[in-house]
Amino acid sequence: MRILIVGATSAIAHETARCFAKDGAEFFLVARSPEKLEDIGNDLKVHGAKRTETFLLDVTDLDRHQEMIETAISTLDGLDMVLISHGTLGDQQKCQVSVSETLKEFTTNCTSVISLLTILAGYFEQQKRGCITVVSSVAGDRGRQSNYVYGAAKGALSVFLQGLRNRLSKSGVAVVTVKPGLIDTPMTATVKKGLLAASAKGVGEGIYRAMKQRKEVVYLPWFWRPIMLIVRNIPEPVFKRLSL
Ligand SMILES: NC(=O)c1ccc[n+]([C@@H]2O[C@H](COP(=O)([O-])OP(=O)(O)OC[C@H]3O[C@@H](n4cnc5c(N)ncnc54)[C@H](OP(=O)(O)O)[C@@H]3O)[C@@H](O)[C@H]2O)c1
Fold first, then answer.
1. pLDDT tens for residues 17-50?
2. Residue burial 138-157, b: 16+ Cβ < 10 Å; e: rest
3. Which atom from ligand 1 is nearest to the alpha carbon of 88?
4. Domains (range + CATH), the chain
5. Are 132 and 211 in contact, with CB atoms under 8 Å apart?
6. 85 CA distance to ligand 1 centroid (A)?
């Protein structure tokens, strides 16, 4: 199994990669920090990875996406799966008073992923097999006053993935949308955790299973599916009165 992971230093992606490492997978790991990438590469080898290659990329540098993907394909002599897991939980208050901050968040969480997917879709469509998995969020299911910039980016991404899944199903390529709820990772270090917060390990394992089973949309943990069904259906006049 040859897997490209963008945002490979994310806590969630690392846990998913560990599961695939146990199967003896080969990895092309993409992220910004050479130190973190080296640590993760070594950890995956300890867990059984057959091969780990690394590539430094700030995903907001859209002009380098083509080069990165071509390098991944030539280095691993093809790709079977892709996992895209980078993201930032931006500061909503800062975004509300700054167009550039809003666009920065949108570029990281949405536009950069759409750019990668546009290139990768062509490759997988031609190959007529494989699996593309992207970590979106429950935040994309309904805009909330506390984080609607992040939510809008994830929501746009989820709709893009919906359409891509439709298109690529004709070519035998699976497109998996992952919608986690609150997970205890570096991204949420300053966010107050309640009873519903889950571990990166559990979510990472859930993503592994979803990729192997070529699922369509997975909520992780599972209970976010009924919760978001309720949240999506709260009438606007009521929703406006809630401090969510
Ligand atoms: N944690 C949650 O509660 C939660 C809930 C729903 C969805 N998610 C989604 O899950 C995914 C993984 O997040 P996580 O929870 O595992 O958090 P994390 O450990 O903080 O991982 C986020 C990753 O994104 C990378 N990244 C951010 N900006 C980047 C850029 N410009 N270029 C390249 N890499 C960049 C970070 O790299 P650096 O190490 O270089 O900063 C880091 O590896 C994200 O898409 C996030 O939106 C998380």
1. 999 999 999 999 999 999 999 999 999 999 999 9
2. bbbbbebeebbbbbbbbbbb
3. 27
4. 2-241 (3.40.50.720)
5. no
6. 6
